[in-house]
């Protein structure tokens, strides 16, 4: 015992030993010091995006093709989460509806309520998808995806820098997804998914005006700036 009482460990060793005891004794402490993702893996929203709500879904005929435009809202403040949400919803939509082109437009919860205002700075993330992009003017790949960096302003508008994702980035995100759910649609009739719109929409599903809809080549040009 006298030997032990005289044994003096260096302070650094004492600190390290104490740290090991604390960390191995409580998983919460491990998460604090090491990082939650390193212990439990990334959260679901970091992999597949977050919850969202459908605002309106429009089906249009354009140049002999079927286009579906899906407008959604989300509270996601992080651009990475927003684009993953939009990509997840695009995949979900394409799995349940047949169309030549799918467009998902993600807005903030504080964004516009009128269809005519759902453009420009109101858009926080956007995805275009086509199984046969060769048939769509301006598309050279199955996906086009872009996101605005930073959170939305109080009025729901986005003022950050626009980032266009490469096809490799999109493939990595989609492949890693574990959740393939669409947004919650509070107005959808039971058993239906997409609201038909051929120019005679009601107040909840206003008809889209051709002059307000950018073609894929225009989206690509905007993403390049």
What is this structure's SSE topology?
Layout: H1 2-6, H2 11-25, H3 27-34, H4 36-40, H5 44-48, E1 53-62, E2 65-74, H6 79-96, E3 101-108, E4 125-129, E5 143-148, E6 162-164, H7 167-176, H8 216-223
Parallel strand pairs: 2-3
Antiparallel strand pairs: 1-2, 3-4, 4-5, 5-6
Helix pairs in contact: 2-3
Can you put this structure into words, describing what you see?
This protein is of the alpha+beta class and 225 residues long. The protein has one domain: Diaminopimelate Epimerase, Chain A, domain 1 (Roll), CATH 3.10.310. The protein is 33% helix and 19% strand. The chain contains eight helices and six strands. A six-stranded mixed sheet has the order 1-2-3-4-5-6, with helices on both faces. The protein is globular, with a radius of gyration of 24 Å.
